[in-house]
Amino acid sequence: MNYVTMLLTSSHEKEKFSCGNDMLDAYLHKQAKQDVKRNLTACFILTDDTKHVKGYYTLSNSSIPRDLLPNEIIKKLPPSYKDLPVTLLGRLAVEIKHKGQGIGAILLIDALKRCYYTSTNSIASMAVIVDPIDDAAMNFYLKYGFILLPDSGRMFIPMATIAQLFNVA
Predict the structure, then answer these.
(1) Does the pTM exceed 0.90?
(2) Are 118 and 125 in contact (CB under 8 A)?
(3) For 83-96, what is each residue's pLDDT tens digit?
(4) What is the pLDDT averaged over residues 33-59?
(5) Domain at 130, CATH number
(6) Domain total for the chain?
(7) What is the residue range of 27's domain?
(8) Is the pLDDT of residue 168 over 90?
């Protein structure tokens, strides 16, 4: 089956989406469209040739205090930056009936490619950050090279690592 990721529109059947997490379901059903309209986030959905949402993720600009980053990253950055520009992968969810089919990986790879392209072509970002919702999400991100930021619960992956993942470094 061929899948495509695209921006969420009112024509997508988001009300039928269920990932098993009430908060992530409610976000897509009730809030995502308003957040997009207010330019608070961009919401990308994965679908096939139907209007049905198989999974989604959100991206927005953010920053992270430099003192949260590991020393090996900090020492490479100019000291004048107290907060560093990052891209927040705010939510990522896969519909229950499509779990175990690699759709989470497809969504994450699409998000990372989109973040990398944007950071090198229009809006600077030195990393992608996530706030994993639970241990399963944390383990998912660890498999793809994300690093846990101690004492924050956040995880990040530098753009340089993303470039290496896609052989563009």
Answers:
(1) yes
(2) yes
(3) 999 999 999 999 99
(4) 93
(5) 3.40.630.30
(6) 1
(7) 4-165
(8) no
